[in-house]
Amino acid sequence: MSANKRKVCVVVNSRANYGRIKTVLTAIKNHPSLELFLILGASALLARFGNVRDIMERDGFYPNSTVYTILEGETPTTMAKSTGLAIMELATIFENSKPDIVLTVADRFETIATAIAASYMNIPLAHTQGGEVTGSIDESVRHAITKLAHIHFPATDRAYKNVIRMGEPPDTVFNVGCPAMDVILNIDLKIPARFFEEYTGVGPKIKFNQPYIVVLQHPVTTEFGRGYIQIKETLAAVREIGIQTVWLWPNVDAGSDDVSKGLREFRENYPDSPIHFYKNFAVEDYARLIDNCICLVGNSSSAIREGSLLGVPAVNIGTRQLGREHDVNIIHVNYDRIEILNAMKSQIKHGRYTKSHLFGKGDAGKKIAEILASVKLNIQKKLTYKYDV
Amino acid sequence: MSANKRKVCVVVNSRANYGRIKTVLTAIKNHPSLELFLILGASALLARFGNVRDIMERDGFYPNSTVYTILEGETPTTMAKSTGLAIMELATIFENSKPDIVLTVADRFETIATAIAASYMNIPLAHTQGGEVTGSIDESVRHAITKLAHIHFPATDRAYKNVIRMGEPPDTVFNVGCPAMDVILNIDLKIPARFFEEYTGVGPKIKFNQPYIVVLQHPVTTEFGRGYIQIKETLAAVREIGIQTVWLWPNVDAGSDDVSKGLREFRENYPDSPIHFYKNFAVEDYARLIDNCICLVGNSSSAIREGSLLGVPAVNIGTRQLGREHDVNIIHVNYDRIEILNAMKSQIKHGRYTKSHLFGKGDAGKKIAEILASVKLNIQKKLTYKYDV
Amino acid sequence: MSANKRKVCVVVNSRANYGRIKTVLTAIKNHPSLELFLILGASALLARFGNVRDIMERDGFYPNSTVYTILEGETPTTMAKSTGLAIMELATIFENSKPDIVLTVADRFETIATAIAASYMNIPLAHTQGGEVTGSIDESVRHAITKLAHIHFPATDRAYKNVIRMGEPPDTVFNVGCPAMDVILNIDLKIPARFFEEYTGVGPKIKFNQPYIVVLQHPVTTEFGRGYIQIKETLAAVREIGIQTVWLWPNVDAGSDDVSKGLREFRENYPDSPIHFYKNFAVEDYARLIDNCICLVGNSSSAIREGSLLGVPAVNIGTRQLGREHDVNIIHVNYDRIEILNAMKSQIKHGRYTKSHLFGKGDAGKKIAEILASVKLNIQKKLTYKYDV
Amino acid sequence: MSANKRKVCVVVNSRANYGRIKTVLTAIKNHPSLELFLILGASALLARFGNVRDIMERDGFYPNSTVYTILEGETPTTMAKSTGLAIMELATIFENSKPDIVLTVADRFETIATAIAASYMNIPLAHTQGGEVTGSIDESVRHAITKLAHIHFPATDRAYKNVIRMGEPPDTVFNVGCPAMDVILNIDLKIPARFFEEYTGVGPKIKFNQPYIVVLQHPVTTEFGRGYIQIKETLAAVREIGIQTVWLWPNVDAGSDDVSKGLREFRENYPDSPIHFYKNFAVEDYARLIDNCICLVGNSSSAIREGSLLGVPAVNIGTRQLGREHDVNIIHVNYDRIEILNAMKSQIKHGRYTKSHLFGKGDAGKKIAEILASVKLNIQKKLTYKYDV
What we know:
Oligomer: homotetramer
Radius of gyration of chain A: 20 Å
Number of strands of chain A: 12
């Protein structure tokens, strides 16, 4: 560590996390006044969720510290406990690494764990993706993190306004766009041949030169116990439409087990269905994957974020993204096989949408690094609302 | 448990916690549609902070569960870790006791631990004292809890407005006043003779029929490392004024060790100083203690809350209460022995202030219980801000 | 709780655990001077390992408390951490339930977690299966638990002697046999028709009226990293022999992921192989399963214990059971497909062995309950070795 | 780290720990084939127990990692929980530092935490002070650690035999003596003048050129709840004898609070008693302190170990050291003020004993480092007992 550099600690916890922060990691690494301290934790370390660590190391990001924090069970109880565990572990790592700034990504339980450890330890906390509105527990958690964070990097204009309306000082809020957009705007989006070797998964092979659908549907924590029924609706619709499909396994949230159970049963019952199940893709390859699909289905925020920039026709199912700002490429439907099927058909018929810059213009990573290097650091927060006393 | 009753879980973590929630506990216990599930944790279990458990049991409140969660060290690191540990432990207890509502008090690390465990476990969370503005990490944490809570019980009109401005649905916010006020308005405030037997502490005996000062100064977590210097200013002022003084030990926050070190050194150096050190008082006795003092000094919120209702002349030192709504009984000063001394003299000269109902009228406990029994429970939150799309 | 009854806390953590202690649970429940306090934890709560909880509840055993303690990852690190986590959690449960005796089963990480929590909390600790010799970390852990336990229930004569030679007072060591034997001696061992409905698993259906093999091979923690290669040898041998096979998924030990990976790959590559994969069986059904098989293969202690009583021809692979006392029904082989294949052929040719009572006569459960009800409880241990001073 | 060096991780948790391992740390640091990785944890980080960290840093030992693991409460429950917490934390540190050997000291809860984390992580474990016999939970824990350890460094001939009798392979057991003896044999034992500045404590000043007593009495965990009564007996005896006394605060074991309460009450009641209370001494200074005293009183093992080498007349109270091998300098008494007083008088009258080498000859540190550098490392343990099969 150079005495003149600000040491920025970033905690990466999952494949989604990594995609949302990758260009920031690069920009920090390349910035003359910043030093990157990288922690890998949670599902980023688990084989079950694909080798995120391997993908990161291939990109040149080696962790300074790793920490296991996922308590098995995938229930609301284990989610709470994993949060507590992550706080305890991260505090020890912060104690020993002494970062100048901690940067936390989005709205997951690992994100708030990072936020709480940093806050209580008087380490200035920066936060990306604050101010957006969604469903699930993520909605509560995202805004709670905003109230703990000292530096805010919202991704849209409306999110920027929301953060300020919640009482954050405007000079700590920076509308920089979403770093996930940066990735997309700087690569060739053709599906490369190596796809077939690199990503194996299970199920019949996908022919990427022919039309295919992509599905990614996570559990909704606030609807815990209903994931099995919900995923069966999506499976029925996808089976009915009969087009080859790339299906990604869900994340580690409470209820993941229910979703997986539905997927596994489907595989046993319909082994010949043209669905190939994957665990994980490199960030750029995921962009390629959805850019070339004819319809993106599920409840991942990537349909709204990356999807809008790429103009991908997308069907958003259920409440997980409810209320999230989005562009015209999205059709919202309920957990209902008929609604899902009809929306898929309609989107496939419509085809590609115009590209939208709602979530940024591709320079978020650099802007964030620049701000982290120069922003005044102050740990005492204060609600900004004024009253006539 | 009766099938018809709502089971309300309250986690009491310290003497201050208990004072702020006692009348709510009573009201829940007495309510025909509510069942109380009481958890005792953190410093409420530690002899070092006085026997809060004993005091509660004398009041008829026996814990359904106890849980040790304070990691020793009193540094920012251990505060973070204690938060994580409390989440893990509370999750197991919630898992086994299945409350319908969890009620969390104010803004401490145990409070946010309770909030996070309940939130992720889809248990509706009620919160008292939201919307107030102060210094210390409590400021961040209080508002973060508001963003996690489903039912809000702010104590003042301004706090009520702040909670709504932060984006909480107005029909979930109830301006009920502070339960700590309830206690005061229902008791005889004379200092009873039994004081001398019940509270021993260390140092020369206090003559409660003669003028005395009360001091209570906690560490400020966001100023960690400066507590020793800060407390020496207060000690110098109190020594200079030469009036007999009741001094309460600080709470368990990061920096407590520094404050205690200052107090202990003072005791060694000035064993004959007319200062008596106490660990704890019963809730009602603390009210009696400050109602009869000539000046309340330090940075406890009790000067602002109970103090305003009682009209106690008070000197508030430093940043811990900075920005908190208060009435005319407060003089703010810096960590400076001259400023503190002058403010004390000025307040003693002024004498008693008019009683203020800024923090409530004495019916908060009953109102809260009533609302808990009848309010619609809903776990999916959503920021209320509207935009023209 | 009756004031006159001894409250015996038993922590059940896995399907294996339950089979080894079931008749003790029944005997405690039925004993007039004992009260059962049942904790369910670790993999007994995880769907991935079969619904042990459901099986237990069908048997009439409802947990007084449940606790999630498995940190995901299945590495040596997560095994250590899961041990630490279990200690912390169990301590809180013991604190709140105040058992008179804690009973811990065998030699797993949950077992030593239970032992340490009870020991430090001055709760007399009883232990089953002490004094046996094996491979894996279980070998170290088993003897460490013996040194913490106050009451010993070894299962064989040699184990009894070993416990005493390690310095335990002979009047605290009781050679009662293994409770797992009790189960077998009291049931009809025919495979019932309901098997087909109750246990689904994945893979081609097993015809239980025709010859079949059973395989159960766990990871060896002290050989972490080699599980994938090891399981491939077994899979190759089983594929070669071509007989229909019941295969049970491995337990949660470090390396489980490697074993599972091997199994999953095999399933993808040889979907038509006559192997059916199961997660779990009820205790009695597992006995039926192996009693009717023509060969039991792998490294489970059940081949040695239940296998000897039933006279099941068994092939024990590798080091996990190395050194464990056994009868003539076992052939030991290395991780080598040829050795495994030859041993299987040899055992199938040999057929059934004479039943052996090496591990008990079927009354262990009752004996253990009787001793728990009457034994003198003393928490201060002392090494018994004598020296001329 | 050099690729050719063995990385030896030592976890130091308290002042006592440090004294017992200091010369080993030096020898590892100086050994050409070893690299020291030093972890500081538990009470070594707490101001309440004296600044062990400061003392170590003055000696040139800077921690590679620090970790807070003491859960406050000082009850059997918190002791168990602190053990669990330490396992979790140490596992993360081991994961990130990858030591070749872990060395753990003696018999405390931090010691077994270290042992369990290393064992499950397949890291060869070395252990000092195995095979000794005492009271308290330490007795159980010490032998449990022996059963987990791969390399044993007992301090006496009898301890050496005990370790082997417990079933450890003789070629892994090395009778090297106690490293604490090394310290003593290499220093000038005169009390230096700087004592008065360096160690402040509380109470009347000690005149080190006049006769003084040293008292150090820890809680006995297996007698939890009786510490307050027990310490009052010792205090009464010391008060009666009326000689100036250096009194050290007890360690962090369960019951410490009771002992401290007794000491604090005594201080309030008899402020003029010629007793000076200290928290901590540098290792060498503690040796000087007891070498120059006329009687060492309490239940610390230092009376038996260092005391025998120095020939210090000592009174051992109660069960904590019961059964521990010792020399003639010890008189055992019960928790009884008369017995204690009489034994003190008798020892003071007797004066200095002949020096004994029961616990080593001063070369333990170097021997241990040499063995750590050259011993064959093997993680699979196996009970050595032989039987005719």
